[in-house]
Amino acid sequence: MEENKKTRVIAIIALIVAIVCVSIGFAAMSTTLRINGNSTMDTAHWRVRFKNLSDPVIVGNASIITAPTLTDTVIETYKVKLTNTGDSVTYYFDVANESVDMDAVIGTFTKQTPTCTGSVSDTNIVCPNVSYELRYTSNNELVKENDTLNAGETKNLKLTISYVGSSLPEGVVDINNLNIAIIYNQN
User: Fold this and answer.
1) What is the mean pLDDT of the chain?
2) CA 173, CA 114: separation in Å to the nearest integer?
3) CA distance 89 to 161
4) pTM for the full model?
5) What is the pLDDT of residues 113-171, one digit of tens each?
6) Which of 5, 75, 122, 183 makes the best surface tag, with the fewest CB within 10 Å?
7) DSSP string of the chain?
């Protein structure tokens, strides 16, 4: 049994010596490789924008007071006049992801609550019955957070402002705050 123990000790010592020798040999034959560098983010390839604003589609006795202006990122200054139940104005336009290889996702979609100015009784009739919404023309679904726009993809949207109430005001009611903000993030 004593001889068996000596054999084990010698085998363990030989194994340790072999591991040390292999480690020293590996260290002597190894080479250190380094990668040093810098990078630049070129934002010219990230571009989501509005384009191709259509002429309005008018339903009923609605009319255009001020036509909208379109830039890459803003549709603004539009003003429409609604006079009867069922009147509406619809604008069609595209949102395009002109990025080469970066998909986009709506990170924030904010739709303001309309505000009305006029007599209290008239604003109580009008404001709850003004509808404005932004939908995709392909499937008529509302635009919302987490909707995607793949690289190179263009989607057609429609912005509709309408009066859906059954009662009409006695006086003029100005409707403001028909604002929508969409923030696209890289997906």
Assistant:
1) 86
2) 12
3) 5
4) 0.75
5) 999 999 999 999 999 999 999 999 999 999 999 999 999 999 999 999 999 999 999 99
6) 5
7) -HHHHHHHHHHHHHHHHHHHHHHHHHHHH-------------GGG--EEEE-PPPPEEETT-EEEE--EE-SS-EE--EEE--STT-EEEEEEEEEE--SS--EEEEEEEEPPPEEES-HHHHHHHGGGEEEEEEETTT-PBP-TT-EE-TT-EEEEEEEEEE--SS--SS--EEE---EEEEEEE-
Structure tokens at 101: 């290889």
CB 49 within 8 A of CB 96: yes
Question: What DSSP string describes 15-69?
Answer: HHHHHHHHHHHHHHH-------------GGG--EEEE-PPPPEEETT-EEEE--E
Tokens 């890289």 locate to: 186
Question: Residue type at 151?
Answer: A
Residues 41 and 8: their CA atoms lie apart, in Å, by 62
pLDDT tens digits for 48-78?
A: 999 999 999 999 999 999 988 888 888 888 8
* pLDDT, average across residues 84-98: 95
Residue ranges and CATH numbers for the domains of the chain are: 49-186 (2.60.40)
Distance CA 175, CA 185 (A): 31
